[in-house]
# Entry
Amino acid sequence: MSRGTQNTFVLLVGLSALVMAIKGTYLHFVKPSLLPWLVAAAVVLIVLAVASIVRDLRDAPDAPDADEHGHRHRPWLVWLLLVPIALTTFVVPPPLGAQGAAPEAVAVTAPPKRAFPPLPAGRAPAVSIPDVVMRAAADSTNSLDRRLITLAGFTVKYPEGTDLGRVVIVCCAADAQLARIHLSGAAAAEAAGYPEDTWLQVEGNVVPGTSTASTNFIPTIAVSRVTRIDKPANTYAY
Amino acid sequence: MEVLLAALIALALAAGAMSAFVAGHADVSVAATEFCGVFVQALPFLVLGVVISGLIAAFVSADRLARWLPRRPAVAVAVAGVGGAALPGCECGSVPVARRLFGDGGSGAAALTFMLSAPAINPVVLVATAVAFPGQPAMVFARCAASLITAITMGLLWLRWGRAEWVTRRLPTPHATDASRWAVFTEAARHDFLQAASYLVLGAAAAALLRVALPPWVFQHLAGHLILGVLTMALLAVVLALCSEADAFVAASLTMLPLLPRLVFLVVGPAVDVKLSAMQAGMFGRPFAIRFGPATFVVATVVATVVGLVVLR
# Structure
């Protein structure tokens, strides 16, 4: 493999990171907080590649292949870099949905209770699904009781019914987990009519006492209204 | 070069068809997304690592490094272990840095200790662990202690039994003594990036495929079996190849397991996993990786279990 090809690979990896950052597709794979680091990495790689290309062009006559020995063993391995370049720039796999996340852990013991901050004011404040799951299991102030809330997520089909879920990532898509909530009540049948992975906004009350060891701490919400929504640009919750 | 250009044009032309294929096959799409997740997450840390290793190549000569470290090798290993706390980042970055510090022989044991301790005991990772296990400071302490002991043990084992000829990969020798610092820096960073990144591709692919292939019951049938739980979590740490800044949150979510197997997960993960072994094979050579990986696995599992039994009771 020539030095020119190697430098081009460094340049291409940098450019594909930059493309991901500009098009926002990096959100399929990692958290928004990685953006400045990703851009910095892209800039460093592009500068490295350009500096090497410029120096090789300048030194070309007197020092051909001066330091090839580092790559004699398996130079073809560098070709593997085509895989991430192709996937992140050309193919762009979709963010994980209902199928991709790890099955959630089965909690044996209840998490320790603590006081959560009160829900936002208003008739039906928007709360994230992982937040609802946490509050239902561990909130000592029972902030969800007798409150109408609005949830957004995708439908997950089970033989026993339909759930609303969100994929939670901590760091990157490889640690994704599914947070979900069972749907019941007047409008649950409407939600069940949609195919899997349909994005819905629902309004309803969390049924007190449904987040227990016997339900794997998955709460139930009695739904009064279901609206179909567009898939958001950033599908993950954090 | 021509082949690369042709490949790029082919990719651009086939992009639509490939996207449709990936979107149409759930398993392929999940594996592809997880592969990209591991790669994109690791990329900034890897770049930080090769920048540091380039700076070491340009500014820290082998004899200057030797002057910084204590004369006695065992003391140098201990200093390197504690010094690992100074490199905030995860394990992908520390492999090229350690390879650069390792040099060709010399203070090798200290470099390996640094490689194992840096991703596990730096402040970012410890804070993440504290956040993931609220109200359980013993977990943070146990993780720090077990990782440090593992790193120092491996350094001492290398001092006693390690052989320089296992390290078959050579660093590119600086071609001219009059090369500018900038030229040395860019050459070293470029070389290390290509080596480490291409092996990162192998490791990320292995991790993504294993995650898709791993049956869900693995996660669920472990409660109550201590030894089985420890072994499974140690193997999971190797297979999942999580970033050391994220693994605490994953371990925290596996609430069906007692704390001890989860501690083993946190100690083994940053020290040895499929992605790291691939990168070590790339930077140090295969004879090194096939000995160092399993040895680290055994030491980390045993040390974490013992520390856990003492601290988490």
